[in-house]
Design brief:
The structure holds two protein chains of two kinds.
Chain A lengths: L1 H26 L5 H4 L16 H31 L7 H13 L2 H12 L3 H25 L3 H9 L4 H31 L12 H9 L3 H32 L6
Chain B lengths: L1 E10 L2 E11 L4 E6 L5 H8 L7 E6 L2 E2 L5 H6 L1 E4 L11 H5 L1 H6 L3 H14 L4 H4 L9 H13 L5 E5 L7 H18 L2 E5 L3 H7 L2 E6 L2 E6 L1 H6 L4 H7 L4 H8 L16 E2 L4 H11 L3 E5 L5 E6 H8 L4
Parallel strand pairs in B: 3-8, 3-9, 6-7, 7-8, 11-12
Antiparallel strand pairs in B: 1-2, 1-4, 4-5, 9-10, 12-13
Classes of the chains: A mainly alpha, B alpha/beta.
The complex binds adenosine-5'-triphosphate and magnesium ion.
Pfam families (chain B): ABC_tran
Organism (chain B): Mesorhizobium ventifaucium
Keywords (chain B): ATP-binding, Nucleotide-binding, Transport
Chain lengths: 254, 312
């Protein structure tokens, strides 16, 4: 019993350590210079020196957040539309559109978007948005179409209108599955956002690309590690919210 | 009053409910029995228009049930769905409050009503109100489902096997409570059940369905005495018939003059209970007392046996 209690604390401690480490690194990268120094050659700088890591991290997160909010809004709205009686006929069409968004490589989206909207954050947002739609849409669709039939019928039987059923029963009950889609989408976006720096978006990709151009392994590693740490922490955080929501919806969680 | 006229429901080529006509008098209970898949649930759901009929009309107090939008109609009709269908993400109290909230009752009135119903169904409002359905036993969930159907004091109540998961003691209590509510508020109830005992006990009339058709719709005594077909006879249980017949009558109606030894049986006990007591104790007669404790006379084995015989 006691041992299980201790074990349950281990992941939380690791997570906390990771958070502390991440904050320390992006706010005071100088502290970590001795660790990264061996990775550099001929006295090149070990810490990214063409901008603040903290600013880049925040901009990176902002880009992902905007793209995810937009993708969630559109994907959930689309899933709601095609699960209403009036919208069923749009299901195949929406599916193919969303699938194209996912199969079209983000790099190609960037290349196509730049002539249209110019360099910077915008093409990156478009690429992340398109790339992030599919997991959210598919999960929302699964959530909304696998609701327990007699619960939905009970809602109809009580005299709820279509809108009331959606807001009071269908969306709350599918929230855990939809959140799962958002989680996948966010993690994909966190990694994908790095390529935005090829079109001058200010993301952590800048650090990696600078490292590649100047053959500086320390840059590549610190850029990659910050993105990875962000992904792990956000994945964990969203999983916890998902489990909490599932419990609140009266669903058993393993 | 509920008038069902020539109601038919077809899914593709299969006819699930086949030209059913019946009238349910106001302030009475109609019980629908029949084998699994005979169309009981479908018939019930056409009354509150969860299912739209292929043909036919249903009138509630003279008005076509299509004269209101479906959701408004359903707020005015209590519906206890087969297998409770509680909202898993809402507390017991919130589940029961569903229709009152939709109708815009004020919070104090809703709380009063929820507490009243929970108390009636022996669920302490303090302890059970804030719980979620998955924290309840199957029988408790079912009672919450019935309470939810009753919450807005509907005039018409549709109940689809509402007592199936209850143990015999609580089921008995739930049946008595429902009868009391029905008497007090004059509710018109249509109840689906697989339990013939329940049908005979609760029903002012019993409707027997077979493969989508209404094969007999009559008072319990008549269904027992003159089953319309071999199917009905099997359904009511041929060997149970005399006992079911006795369970319909009260002891006071079988009283003979005279006295007998031993503990008296109350006049409003069922004749079946009286016969069981006589057979069990091996006596030929039992004294009968009224509600005030005064002796009314006696019941005898011979008298009861005559009453249990086929009226034909
Ligand atoms: N939406 C539907 N589409 C096609 N067939 C259906 C549909 N709903 C019900 N049925 C069929 O109609 C028949 C009657 O179903 P119904 O639910 O009314 O039966 P029931 O008498 O309530 O049975 P039970 O006692 O098992 O609850 C069944 O054969 C069922 O498969
Ligand atoms: Mg049924």
């Amino acid at each position: 019993m006691k041992e299980a209690g201790v074990k349950a604390w281990v992941p939380s401690l690791l997570r906390l350590a990771l958070v502390v480490l991440l904050i320390a690194f992006v706010s005071n990268p100088g502290w970590f210079e001795p660790l990264l120094k061996p990775l550099t050659e001929s006295n090149a700088p070990a810490i990214y020196n063409q901008g603040s890591l903290l600013t880049l991290t925040l901009l990176h997160l902002r880009t992902v957040l905007i793209a995810t909010v937009a993708a969630t809004t559109v994907a959930v709205a689309l899933a709601i539309l095609v699960t209403r009686p009036a919208g069923v006929e749009f299901l195949p069409l929406s599916r193919s559109l969303v699938n194209i968004g996912q199969t079209f490589p983000p790099v190609a989206v960037l290349a196509l978007a730049v002539p249209a909207v110019g360099f910077g954050e915008k093409p990156t947002l478009i690429a992340l948005f398109l790339y992030g739609l599919l997991p959210i849409f598919e999960n929302a669709l699964t959530g909304l179409t696998t609701l327990p039939a007699n619960v939905v019928e009970a809602a109809r039987g009580a005299g709820m209108t279509g809108w009331q059923r959606l807001v009071k029963v269908e969306l709350p009950l599918s929230a855990p599955i939809i959140l799962g889609g958002i989680r996948l989408s966010v993690v994909i976006s966190l990694a994908t956002a790095t390529i935005g720096s090829t079109v001058a978006a200010r993301t952590l990709g800048e650090v990696i690309i600078a490292g590649l151009l100047s053959n500086n392994l320390a840059f590549v590693l610190q850029g990659g590690l910050i993105v990875a740490a962000l992904a792990v922490l956000i994945y964990d955080g969203l999983s916890a919210i998902e489990r909490y929501t599932a419990r609140r919806m009266g669903q058993e969680t393993a | 009053m509920i008038e069902i006229e020539g109601i038919t429901k077809r899914y593709d080529a299969t006819t699930v409910v086949d030209d059913v006509s019946m009238v349910i008098e106001p302030r009475t209970i109609a019980v629908i029995v029949g084998t699994s898949g005979s169309g009981k649930t479908t018939l019930l759901r056409m009354i509150n228009r969860l299912v739209e009929p292929t043909a036919g009309v249903i009138r509630l107090d003279g008005a076509d049930n299509r004269s209101l939008p479906g959701y408004e109609l359903r707020r005015s009709i209590g519906y206890a769905i087969q297998g409770h269908g509680l909202f898993p993400h809402r507390t017991v109290a919130q589940n029961i409050a569903t229709v009152p909230v939709l109708l815009g009752w004020d919070a104090a009135r809703i709380k009063r009503r929820v507490d009243e119903l929970m108390t009636l169904y022996q669920l302490d409002p303090q302890a059970f109100g804030p719980r979620y359905p998955h924290e309840l036993s199957g029988g408790q969930q079912q009672r919450v489902g019935v309470a939810r159907a009753l919450a807005a004091e509907p005039n018409v109540l549709l109940m689809d096997e509402p007592f199936g998961a209850l143990d015999p003691i609580i089921r008995n209590k739930a049946q008595e409570d429902l009868l009391a509510i029905q008497k007090r508020f004059g509710t018109t109830i249509i109840l689906v059940t697989h339990d013939m005992e329940e049908a005979v006990h609760m029903g002012d009339k019993i409707a027997v369905m077979d493969a989508g058709k209404l094969v007999q719709y009559a008072k319990p005594a008549e269904i027992l005495a003159k089953p319309a077909s071999a199917f009905v006879e099997t359904l009511v249980g041929a060997s149970e018939k005399p006992f079911r017949l006795l369970s319909l009558g009260r002891v006071r109606d079988a009283v003979e003059t005279g006295t007998a030894e031993g503990e008296a049986i109350p006049g409003d006990a069922s004749q079946r209970d009286a016969l069981a007591e006589l057979l069990w104790s091996g006596r030929p007669a039992l004294p009968v007392k009224g509600a005030d404790g005064k002796p009314l006379g006696r019941v005898t084995v011979d008298g009861l046996v005559k009453r249990a015989a086929s009226p034909a």
